[in-house]
Write a structure and sequence with these properties.
This protein is mainly alpha-helical. It has helices at residues 2-9, 12-47, 70-101, 141-145, and strands at 55-57, 67-69, 113-114, 124-125. It contains 4 helices and 4 strands.
């Protein structure tokens, strides 16, 4: 039983996911500190004065429960954008490169699509012979593109 567990844990994709999560958590902490201590003060300063931050007071003045805090929302949006850019450029791009060296394609662009003439669904793979949505038969890919010439002419 322990041998099976060891084999499961030591599979390459499990280890890759675990390392990716650890790196993502560490980067998340770093980026959160950046937004809290650099971006938030800049956004709060944009409001000016002695207000609670960038936003509007919806209720009694000074009540944090009724304060619409746009500064915190903007900070969270900046955090998200920075975090996703870091994950993409420091994890996804190198992973794609390493996998390409191994002969594997990951995060590939979707193949060409065609439209079903019966239900007008636009997300069918070009090689589909039946519609995923209505089940109607699809013309062959070459005939759908209009590139096939009749034989004998």
């Amino acid at each position: 039983m322990l041998k099976g567990f060891k084999n499961f844990v030591m599979r390459g994709d499990i280890v890759t996911v675990a390392v990716g999560l650890i790196i993502a958590l560490a980067l998340s902490t770093l980026i959160k500190a950046f937004t809290d201590f650099v971006i938030n003060p800049i956004i709060a300063r944009a409001q000016g004065g002695h207000s609670m931050g960038l936003g509007w007071q919806l209720g009694r003045a000074g009540n944090k429960n009724t304060y619409l805090d746009l500064g915190s929302f903007l900070s969270a949006a900046v955090y998200f954008l920075i975090f996703m850019a870091v994950v993409y450029f420091l994890i996804v791009v190198p992973y794609k490169h390493v996998q390409a060296r191994r002969g594997m394609v990951v995060f590939a662009e979707p193949g060409p699509l065609k439209t079903c003439p019966a239900c007008l669904s636009e997300d069918l793979p070009a090689a589909a012979v039946k519609c995923l949505h209505c089940g109607s038969d699809q013309p062959p890919a070459a005939a759908a593109a209009g590139g096939a010439a009749p034989a004998g002419r």
